Amino acid sequence: MNEAGEGGSVGRVRAALRAAGHADTIAMFPAGTRTSEDAARAVGCAVAQIAKSLVFRAKGSGRPVLVIASGVNRVDLAKVSAALGVPIERADGRWVRETTGFAIGGVAPVGHEVAPVVLIDAALMALDRVWAAAGSPMHVFETTPAELVRLSGGRVVAVAES
Protein backbone atom coordinates (compact mmCIF):
# COMPACT_ATOMS: atom_id res chain seq x y z
CA MET A 1 0.00 0.00 0.00
CA ASN A 2 2.99 2.30 -0.44
CA GLU A 3 2.43 5.66 -2.09
CA ALA A 4 5.49 6.49 -4.12
CA GLY A 5 4.84 10.03 -5.27
CA GLU A 6 4.16 12.24 -2.23
CA GLY A 7 6.27 15.30 -1.68
CA GLY A 8 6.23 17.67 1.25
CA SER A 9 6.38 16.26 4.73
CA VAL A 10 5.86 12.62 3.68
CA GLY A 11 8.68 13.02 1.17
CA ARG A 12 10.92 14.40 3.94
CA VAL A 13 10.20 11.35 6.08
CA ARG A 14 10.83 8.99 3.14
CA ALA A 15 14.15 10.73 2.39
CA ALA A 16 15.20 10.56 6.07
CA LEU A 17 14.36 6.85 6.25
CA ARG A 18 16.29 6.09 3.07
CA ALA A 19 19.28 8.21 4.16
CA ALA A 20 19.40 6.19 7.39
CA GLY A 21 19.33 2.88 5.48
CA HIS A 22 15.79 2.02 6.62
CA ALA A 23 13.43 0.26 4.22
CA ASP A 24 10.64 2.40 2.77
CA THR A 25 7.75 0.99 4.79
CA ILE A 26 5.53 4.07 4.47
CA ALA A 27 1.91 3.17 3.83
CA MET A 28 -1.07 5.44 3.19
CA PHE A 29 -4.47 4.91 4.79
CA PRO A 30 -7.11 7.25 3.30
CA ALA A 31 -9.43 6.77 6.30
CA GLY A 32 -6.76 8.44 8.43
CA THR A 33 -4.27 7.64 11.16
CA ARG A 34 -4.56 10.88 13.19
CA THR A 35 -5.06 9.19 16.58
CA SER A 36 -3.42 6.06 17.98
CA GLU A 37 -6.77 4.28 17.80
CA ASP A 38 -7.30 5.31 14.16
CA ALA A 39 -3.79 4.20 13.23
CA ALA A 40 -4.11 0.83 14.99
CA ARG A 41 -7.45 0.18 13.28
CA ALA A 42 -6.00 1.09 9.86
CA VAL A 43 -2.82 -0.94 10.27
CA GLY A 44 -4.46 -3.89 12.05
CA CYS A 45 -2.27 -3.84 15.15
CA ALA A 46 -2.68 -3.21 18.87
CA VAL A 47 -2.93 0.43 19.98
CA ALA A 48 0.18 -0.17 22.11
CA GLN A 49 2.16 -0.73 18.87
CA ILE A 50 1.49 2.81 17.65
CA ALA A 51 4.52 4.98 18.39
CA LYS A 52 2.82 8.34 18.82
CA SER A 53 4.93 11.49 18.52
CA LEU A 54 4.16 14.32 20.93
CA VAL A 55 5.91 17.68 20.68
CA PHE A 56 6.59 19.88 23.69
CA ARG A 57 8.65 23.04 24.24
CA ALA A 58 11.54 23.39 26.65
CA LYS A 59 10.64 26.41 28.78
CA GLY A 60 13.00 29.31 28.29
CA SER A 61 14.81 28.06 25.19
CA GLY A 62 11.73 27.03 23.24
CA ARG A 63 13.68 24.03 21.92
CA PRO A 64 11.40 21.29 20.58
CA VAL A 65 11.14 18.13 22.65
CA LEU A 66 9.79 15.06 20.87
CA VAL A 67 8.39 12.30 23.06
CA ILE A 68 7.66 9.05 21.24
CA ALA A 69 5.26 7.02 23.37
CA SER A 70 3.20 3.87 23.11
CA GLY A 71 -0.29 4.63 21.83
CA VAL A 72 -1.86 3.31 25.04
CA ASN A 73 0.22 5.45 27.38
CA ARG A 74 -0.28 9.01 28.60
CA VAL A 75 2.95 10.96 28.95
CA ASP A 76 3.86 12.22 32.42
CA LEU A 77 5.21 15.75 31.89
CA ALA A 78 7.03 15.69 35.24
CA LYS A 79 8.95 12.58 34.14
CA VAL A 80 9.86 14.23 30.83
CA SER A 81 11.05 17.39 32.64
CA ALA A 82 13.07 15.29 35.10
CA ALA A 83 14.70 13.29 32.28
CA LEU A 84 15.70 16.50 30.50
CA GLY A 85 16.59 18.51 33.57
CA VAL A 86 14.47 21.43 32.34
CA PRO A 87 10.78 22.24 32.61
CA ILE A 88 8.67 21.65 29.52
CA GLU A 89 5.33 22.98 28.34
CA ARG A 90 2.71 21.92 25.86
CA ALA A 91 3.09 23.25 22.34
CA ASP A 92 0.24 24.59 20.23
CA GLY A 93 -0.45 23.29 16.74
CA ARG A 94 0.87 26.37 14.96
CA TRP A 95 4.21 26.21 16.79
CA VAL A 96 4.47 22.46 16.17
CA ARG A 97 3.97 22.96 12.42
CA GLU A 98 6.39 25.90 12.22
CA THR A 99 9.08 24.15 14.24
CA THR A 100 8.84 20.55 13.04
CA GLY A 101 7.34 20.99 9.58
CA PHE A 102 4.56 18.55 10.50
CA ALA A 103 0.91 19.04 11.39
CA ILE A 104 -0.33 17.45 14.61
CA GLY A 105 -1.49 13.94 13.73
CA GLY A 106 1.35 13.50 11.26
CA VAL A 107 4.45 14.31 13.36
CA ALA A 108 7.10 11.75 12.46
CA PRO A 109 10.10 10.67 14.53
CA VAL A 110 12.43 11.80 11.68
CA GLY A 111 12.62 14.57 9.09
CA HIS A 112 12.09 17.55 11.42
CA GLU A 113 12.81 21.11 10.29
CA VAL A 114 14.50 21.81 13.67
CA ALA A 115 16.21 18.84 15.32
CA PRO A 116 14.35 18.07 18.56
CA VAL A 117 15.58 16.49 21.75
CA VAL A 118 14.04 13.00 21.55
CA LEU A 119 12.83 10.80 24.39
CA ILE A 120 11.37 7.36 23.69
CA ASP A 121 8.90 5.69 26.05
CA ALA A 122 10.57 2.63 27.59
CA ALA A 123 7.29 0.72 27.17
CA LEU A 124 7.85 0.63 23.39
CA MET A 125 11.02 -1.42 23.82
CA ALA A 126 9.03 -4.51 24.84
CA LEU A 127 7.34 -4.69 21.43
CA ASP A 128 8.53 -6.47 18.28
CA ARG A 129 7.07 -4.03 15.71
CA VAL A 130 5.74 -0.48 15.93
CA TRP A 131 4.15 1.96 13.51
CA ALA A 132 4.89 5.69 13.57
CA ALA A 133 3.45 8.69 11.74
CA ALA A 134 5.14 9.37 8.43
CA GLY A 135 4.48 13.06 7.89
CA SER A 136 0.72 13.26 7.43
CA PRO A 137 -2.43 12.15 9.26
CA MET A 138 -2.85 9.43 6.60
CA HIS A 139 0.67 7.94 6.49
CA VAL A 140 2.57 5.63 8.84
CA PHE A 141 5.73 3.56 8.62
CA GLU A 142 6.58 0.23 10.18
CA THR A 143 9.77 -0.31 12.15
CA THR A 144 11.19 -1.90 15.29
CA PRO A 145 11.70 -0.11 18.60
CA ALA A 146 15.49 -0.49 18.26
CA GLU A 147 15.36 1.08 14.79
CA LEU A 148 13.19 3.88 16.15
CA VAL A 149 15.92 4.67 18.69
CA ARG A 150 18.60 4.58 15.98
CA LEU A 151 16.61 6.65 13.48
CA SER A 152 15.57 9.35 15.93
CA GLY A 153 18.72 9.50 18.03
CA GLY A 154 16.41 9.28 21.01
CA ARG A 155 17.08 8.27 24.57
CA VAL A 156 14.92 5.55 26.10
CA VAL A 157 13.29 6.65 29.38
CA ALA A 158 10.19 5.82 31.41
CA VAL A 159 7.83 8.69 30.56
CA ALA A 160 4.44 7.01 30.88
CA GLU A 161 2.05 7.97 33.66
CA SER A 162 1.93 5.34 36.39
Class based on secondary structure composition and strand pairing: alpha/beta
Strand count, sense and barrel status of the largest sheet are: 8 strands, mixed
Estimate what percentage of residues fall within beta strands: 15-25%
Round the Cα radius of gyration to an integer and report it: 14 Å
Tally the structural domains. Answer: 1
Distance between the termini: 37 Å
Instruction: Detail the poorly predicted runs.
Output: 1-5
The overall average pLDDT, rounded, is 93
CATH architecture: Alpha-Beta Complex
Number of helices: 5
H/E element string?
HEHEEHEHEEEHE
Helix content: 25-40%
Sum up the overall morphology in one term.
globular
Classified by CATH, the class is: Alpha Beta
The CATH homologous superfamily is termed: YbaK/aminoacyl-tRNA synthetase-associated domain
CATH topology: YbaK protein
Total number of beta strands: 8
Strand and helix map with partners:
Blueprint: H1 8-19, E1 26-28, H2 36-43, E2 50-58, E3 64-70, H3 77-84, E4 88-90, H4 93-100, E5 117-121, E6 130-133, E7 139-143, H5 145-152, E8 155-157
Report on this structure.
This protein has helices at residues 8-19, 36-43, 77-84, 93-100, 145-152, and strands spanning 26-28, 50-58, 64-70, 88-90, 117-121, 130-133, 139-143, 155-157. It has 162 residues and is of the alpha/beta class. It has a single domain (8-157), classed as YbaK/aminoacyl-tRNA synthetase-associated domain (YbaK protein), CATH 3.90.960.10. Strands 1, 2, 3, 4, 5, 6, 7 and 8 form an eight-stranded mixed sheet that branches. β2 (50-58) and β3 form a beta hairpin. The longest helix has 12 residues, at 8-19. Residues 1-5 have low confidence and may be disordered.
